[in-house]
Amino acid sequence: MKHFPLTLFAAFGLLAADPPLVVQNANILTVTKGTVKGSMVVENGKIKEVGEKVLVPPDAKIVDASGQYVLPGIIDSHSHIAADSINEGSISVSSMVRIEDVLNPEDAAIYRAIAGGTTIANVLHGSANAIGGQNSLIKLRWGKKADEMIWDKSQPSIKFALGENPKRQGNPTGGRVGAGNVNTLRYPGTRMGIEDVYVEAFTRAKEYRESWKQYEAQKAKGETVIPPRRDLQLEPLVEVLEGKRLVHVHAYRGDEVLMMIRIAEQIGFKITSFEHILEGFKVAKEMAKHGSAGAGFSDWWAFKIEAYDAIPYNMAIMVRKGVLASVNSDSADTIRRLNTEAAKTMKYGGLTEEEALKLVTINPAIHLKVDKYVGSIEPGKDADFVIWDKHPLSSFARAQQVYIDGVKYFDRDEDASARMKKEAAKKALEDKFKSEQQRRPGPAAGTAQRRPQ
Amino acid sequence: MRTSLLLLLATTLFANEKDSFFMKGVTLFPVASPKVENTTLLVVDGKIADIGLKSAPKGVRVIDGKGLQVYPGIINSATNIGLSEISSIRETNDTGELGDFNPQLRAIVAINPETEHIPVVRANGISTVITLPGGGGGFGGGGAGIIMGQAALIHLDGYTYEEMEINRTAAYQMRFPTMSSRSFDFDTFQTTRGSFADAKRRFDTQMAEINKFFAEARAYMTAKNAKTPGLKVNVRYEAMIPLFEGKAPVMITASKKREILAAIQFAEAQKIKLILADVRDPGSAVEDIAKKKIPCILGPVTQLPPEADAPYDFNYALPGQLHKAGVKFAFGSFANQFARNIAFEAASASAYGLPYEEALKAITLNAAEIWGVGDKYGSIEKGKYADLLVTNGDPLEVKTDVKMLFIQGRQQSLESKHTRLYDKYRLRPN
Q1: Which residues of B touch A349 (CB under 8 A)?
Q2: Please, which pLDDT band fits residue A378 given cuts at 50, 70 and 90?
Q3: Model-level pTM?
Q4: Beta carbons within 10 angstroms of residue A11's beta carbon
Q5: Pick from A309, A347, A453: which is nearest to B400 by CB?
């Protein structure tokens, strides 16, 4: 990106023109520093001060949050919203494809997610292959362009997948009939084959890395050498080997998690997180030792055989056994209520309120390596926060206002008052469409419209 | 006087420890009447015998419920419990039989009492469910049929389905044809859009088939009543007679305004009792539903809005709007996976406009009344079955713990596959 001095200057000028924001009389659930009954000052998109008494800047905009609760914006470590396509399922190693190329900033799921208190989503490639594509960590800046949603503080990452989904195309009778093209067989068709895909791919990646090392060494000696051909499939895997790319692994069963840990240790890389993991409770010890996080569903189970041993106590066991745990959605529906999904861990396994809140705030921030910027209410962090009318772990809580970088992206009252206007605008568009259709014939009836998925 | 009579009978009455007890120190939320703090409850032979007795009759088992709250057992008005174990595995699903018209099929006979889903939902305070013969669509069938069979109302304590039965013909489950020009093709993962004329033609064809089946079944009933000589037994038509006689309602799945209005019109023309199911986007049909007093079974409150440009809280707010319009409804899951969360669905509706008491009723008394058993279930009243949920807080709050569950006075185990695995792996040495 180019930075001309003039535009830089203009940008700072704009920021300076934004008045500071003070949220007053709130119960501020900082997540990392307890609850503060008081106020929070936001300036230039960052949290400046939190306390019972704060210094209110003279030009500050005041938000009265009497009796309400402030929680950091919820971070969903596993989502597929805002993506026009999810799976490049034609090959078992699709590390060259990128979600950032197919982000759709106009997906209504983004707005619904904000309205449910979520401000950051890790948008992942699908689970059709053992090694999937590159993910995008986005801030849900609704109304902005795709490029402006991709968060510049995010780490590069990649999706891996275990179990039934990546083996489905090699074992069609074992999966859902009709989901995807099952006429063409694709290796692997078993969990054994999935392990092999990692071994083979990383063997190639190591050779590739070696070829570049040799090239650099020869070049350094002043020799004239032809560089190796760039391999966009293997480059991300080299980054994984060098610890420069996070690895998020779709996982359900305990045994496949163990396999992944062992094979990663053998190859020589670290697994950042096991995603929507159902049986983390069976191998929590091994996960904690490896240092991988566990993002889980609150209470999903029995939707397939690999989900038959899923239990809602999963999160509690992982937490108690020292795994960095979080609750993720994997769903445009659940992303709207991760607060109460987290609350389920209090019911199942007796986590405390503070532990439950961490599961959807600071913990996913740590595992996504962005806890320096988000995940708690602390001075210096990004002003990503939500004002809830009740304690956010209550079934009855509603997000009232949602801020990202100090900018308001959702306001329940404004949403309600804008509805009439939107309805009128929609009606006007429909009327215009109808009158135009009357004037000229439309496209032939029965024309199939391709959707990108 | 009545107390002393009870005392007199105590030795025989309380011989059966299993479904008789005295619970003290509890706060009662009877649903049909205001809450009573720090009171007692006497259950005799599975039924509520008295409320507020000062002390326990002699010989009765005493349960100290100090500080606990007692509610009626929760009713989930749409599940596939007993018929579907793992939704994506065909062999474990008995929903969705082949054929369009199957009024003779009975969900009750396919209920597996040993399903893992029963202990799982019981652990969350659910004592009674409707089990549907057709699924909500998707894998394991359930999408295609028109009359899918008879839904069963069961309580969740029994060695056999006969012991669990409350009503094996709680309703005939029927799916109304939709007039949609959009369809999703699983083979190509594409949405295709056809013309409205085609959709209308398909709808009319299906409606003609439905009307023909009903006309034939009714003719059969007439012939049977007239003892027409030579009339051969037709099992399918025979199964329609209770519906025509008003002994059981039809539960028609109709989500949108057009289908809802068509379903109402159809039920009126056929003079059959109607329950609307999975009402999602009724629009102005709400007024018709209210005016004609048609009960509804609402699907998950947390499902996504029907259109991209619908308000974000469309489904959260719908139950509140229906209540305001005067519609009576109960909540159902229409699947098993999240059946245990029905109380939290009710809570979401309450957060967005449904009065709290009504949210609670929609998973207790209203459900019982809609299913025709309001005189025996759904609230804590003398003479009703002791289906009781005992908690340490509001059962609509996610974090609340279920402490005890009674079905017809019998205390249920709160163990499940989930608690067993929890106990096993919680104790795995480090």
Answers
A1: 422
A2: very high
A3: 0.93
A4: 11
A5: A347
